[in-house]
Amino acid sequence: MRFTVAIGYREIELEANPGNPSATVCWGSGEQPVRLEGQPGSKVYILRLGEQTHRMAIMKVGSEYLIQWRGHDFPVRVERGVARRYRALLQKTAPRLPKEPTAHMLTSHMPGLIGKLFIREGQRIEAGERLWVLEAMKMENEIKAPVPGVVEKIHAQEGTQVEKGQPVCTIRLGDLS
């Protein structure tokens, strides 16, 4: 089965066979074997991409997934080939609307305490820029921006307890000029 995996604005082709934990990732004209290892029901997995090994957390959030890797959150959408072709057809036939800024709400990926905020409302941020520190399980997790934009709203303050899935800030995307 062929799938398209969208990580942020990048799309990767993936070919997998049901029941086989190995797959092939297609990068442009090249291919590379990939294997995901972990216990069913666990959130922590080992991703083997060729000779490289990566440890990451994977959680299902609605119809998408959230991958946490090296202190970054990556929203991921997975589509089968048929769904992707259907979406492409709809985009071709849909009337062109002017692009307007959209918002990206960032939520806490686990219960914890907002230790330090590095942002303020109205601040322009870049992808990878640090946003806040989440103190959880005797560890400090530095949360970084998955996308560039402008901080539209901060929903939690320093020193406040947040639950998993609770909004912490909203980033406005789109034309930032």
Topology:
Layout: E1 2-7, E2 10-16, E3 22-27, E4 30-37, E5 44-49, E6 52-61, E7 64-69, E8 72-80, H1 81-93, E9 103-107, E10 112-117, E11 124-125, E12 130-136, E13 139-144, E14 149-154, E15 161-162, E16 167-172
Antiparallel strand pairs: 1-2, 1-8, 2-3, 3-4, 4-5, 5-6, 6-7, 7-8, 9-16, 10-12, 10-15, 11-14, 12-13, 14-16
Which key phrases capture this entry?
177 residues; mainly beta; eight-stranded antiparallel barrel; four-stranded antiparallel sheet; 1 helix; 16 strands; 7% helix; 55% strand; globular
Explain what you see.
The chain is mainly beta and 177 residues long. The protein has one helix and 16 strands. The strands form three sheets. The chain has an eight-stranded antiparallel β-barrel. It has a four-stranded antiparallel beta sheet with strand order 9-16-14-11, with no helix packed on it. It has a four-stranded antiparallel beta sheet with strand order 13-12-10-15, with no helix packed on it. A hairpin with a 5-residue loop joins strand 2 (10-16) and strand 3.
- Secondary-structure element series: EEEEEEEEHEEEEEEEE
The first-to-last residue Cα distance is 42 Å
Low-pLDDT residue spans:
none
Strand order of the largest sheet: 1-2-3-4-5-6-7-8
Structural class: mainly beta
Q: Give the rounded overall mean pLDDT.
A: 79
β-strand percent reads: over 45%
Total strands: the figure is 16
Radius of gyration: 18 Å
* Count of individual helical segments: 1
Approximate helicity band: under 10%
Summarize the main sheet.
Answer: 8 strands, antiparallel, barrel
Shape: globular
Compact summary:
This protein has 1 helix and 16 strands. With 177 residues, it is mainly beta.
